[in-house]
Structure formats: structure tokens, C-alpha cells
Amino acid sequence: MKKxxxxxxxxxxxxxxxxxxxxxxxxxxxxxxxxxxxDRISAGQLNKKREAEFNSARADKQALLNKGKxxxxxxxxxxxxxxxQYAQNEKTLAIRATExxxxxxxxxxxxxxxxxxxxxTIGSITTSNISAQYPGRSDxxxxxxxxxxxxxxxxLEELWIALQTExxxxxxxxxxxxxxxxxxxxSTVEQVTRVGSFNLVTDSGDYVIYNSQTETVQPLxxxxxxxxxxxxxxxxxxxxxxxxxxxxxxxxxxILRLNTQKATLEDRYQQGGTPGYVITAVLALGFLIAxxxxxxxxxxxxxxxxxxxDTSNPSEGNALGRILKIYHExxxxxxxxxxxxxxxxxxxxxxxxxxxxxxxxILAAVAPLLGLLGTVIGMIETFQQITLFGxxxxxxxxxSISMALVTTAMxxxxxxxxxxxxxxxxxxxxxxVHILDEQSAGIIxxxxxxxxx
Length: 453
Description:
The protein is an alpha+beta fold. It folds into 3 domains: 87 residues; 89 residues, no CATH class; 182 residues, no CATH class. Helices cover 74% and strands 7% of the residues. It contains 14 helices and 5 strands. Helix 3 packs antiparallel against helix 5 and helix 10 packs antiparallel against helix 13. The chain is elongated, with a radius of gyration of 58 Å.
């Protein structure tokens, strides 16, 4: 009704507008009356047409509403059916699961055994040196370990073959071609000798290891000890069917890598730092003095032995000859004066014979003290690092502790040969002085007997 009212108002407005327009257009009242009647008829027809269109649209909307209500009813009925079907399916699934468990029987236990065996074998096969020759063996094991269904007969056979291959190949020494990475970059194809599942050795006699992460064969970062390398070269050079001694690493290269990380003698020496260098200088200086003293005593001893064969012709070139010359020059002196002159001559010769011997003794005593000094310096640095960084990482203190221990060892090592050399040189010098004293005493005794005669 509201829409009809609005239509009437609109018609009235149209009539008024038409009336005003016709007044100016027609100019006559009859014509104006007729025009108003015609306009009213037209407006009525227009309103009827609009009303018919409105009723038609209203019927369409009602039809859509009825269709929506019908669809909603159908969906609710469908939801009820689906709920019933879902509940029925749950019951059916439970029944089928029980039937599947009953049908599997002990196969479920086999499934667990297969998964466990595959999981336990993945690690050993992946890191095994045999995988360097036969790559990709762990793919099936990974699949079986992660499977959620029963394995097929073929998969069980593949698992069996993988385990049997590992056991069989671990007892063989074979050669095969492999891509070997180089430390300088790149890789080359080399013939590699595999000793069971323990070690890999290239044809050139170098140990290599299998990297399971990159699945490549790569050399050790540092050469192994000489006896290990000699054993590897002997293995590669031996003929088929022969026997060769070889160092086997049961950890598949782990112990060998640790062996290459050990500090060498040069590394230990460098850890001594400045105190170690000073101890080395002391040792070198002691050996140099010892060589000079040993040369002097050996030369002098040889000359004295030659002089002993001809005491009547003293020579100025040796200590005994000079002492004998003093005797020949003072034959007419009394015993006491001759004895004093010979003692003076021996005292004059002794420093030249014993030159440097006391220095060697002092250096032998100084070397351990320098080692102790290095120990103190190393411990001071250790405590400083503890103060700065704490004790969380022992590697931070390893360098200072190494210097403390290495310098002590170096001091003792330097002192031992110096003491030994000092004893040798001292004995040689003492024997020469003893010969001079012996000859001097003999000369005095012979001179005393001549005076009594």
C-alpha cells in the first residue's frame, strides 16, 4: 500500500506539471480538460503496469524463498543421513581392524623386528667403508625403518642381502676404483684397497677415510705416523694371495684420525715458547763448549802420549814437554826449588786443559732452572685465562699448561746430556792433569836421589 500511495503522489505531481505545461501550450480550457483526462488515463495505465511488475517480482522472490527453505530441509536431511553413515563406517572400520589384526597374527611381530633391524643397521652400513665401494645401500633400510605397513617379500630379501653383504665384505681385502677428493681441491679416480670394513688405502700407500655425510672418499688432514704409512705401502705393494702386516683400525678410521691430530715433536717444541728457545740455546752452547774442550783434551792427550815416548827431547807443543823443559833448565836447583817450579808449571797448564768444563757444569744446572721458570710463566698465564674466561672451556688453558709442562721437560732433557758430557770432558782433563802430576813427582824423586848420591 505504501508503494501504491507513492505512485499516486507521483501521478499527482505529474498531473500538476502537465497542467502547468498545457496552460501555456494549449491556451484553451477544453483542450486543457481533455489533456488532463488523457494524462490521468495514462498515469493509471502506468501505475497498473508498475503494480503488475511489482507483483511479478514479489512472486519470484517468494519462489526463491520457498526453494531456499526446501534446500535447507534437504541438507538437514542429508546431514542426518551422513551422521548415521559415519557412525556406521566407524563401526565397520573397527570390525575390519580387528579382522586385520587377527589375520596378521605373528606378522605384526615380524614387522616390528624388521623395522628395528633396519633402524639398527642404517648407522653401521651408512658409515661403513664398504659403502665407499657399494653406495646407496642405506636407501632401502631407511624406507623399511620408516614404513607403516608390512614389508613385502622382496623388501625382506633386500634386507637380508644388505646384512649378508656387510658380513661377507667385512672379511675381504679387495681393490676398487673410487673418486678420491684432494686437499688442494678437486678429485681424482684412484685405485683403493679396502681392508674389510676397517681401512681404506690408496694405491700410493696413503690412508683415506669414507665420509658418510658427503658419501666421498677423502684423505686424512695430516699424514699418519711413519710406521703406519710403511705398513700401508707394504699392503698395496703386496701381490694377490700373499700376506702383509697391516695396522687395522677397528673404529673405521676414528683412531687413525686421532693419531694424526697428535702433536709432533716440533709442535711440542713450539709450545715451549721463549723459555724453550732459551733452553735450546743453553743446550747448544753447552755442546759447543764441550766439543771444544773434548777436542783440546784429545789433542793434548795425543801429544802427551807422544812426548812420553821421548822424555829426553821436550817439545814446546804440549804441556808435558813444557814441564820437562823447565826441569832441564833447572837441573842444578835443589829439590825444593825444583818442586816449586814444576808445581807452578802444572798450575799454569791446568786452566788451559780445563777451560770451559766449569761452564758446562753451570749450564747443566741452569737448564732445569729455566724449565722451572717456564713452568711458572705457563701457570701464571693459565690463571690469567681462568680469571678472564673461567674454566668452562679447557682448550683455552691447554696452551699455557702445555708450555708449563714442556719447558720443565726441556730443562731436564737439556741438563741430562750436559751432565753426561761434562763428566766425559772432566775425566779427560783430569787424566791429563794426573799424568802431569805423575811425571812431575817422578822427576822430583829422581832429582832427589841424584842429590843424595
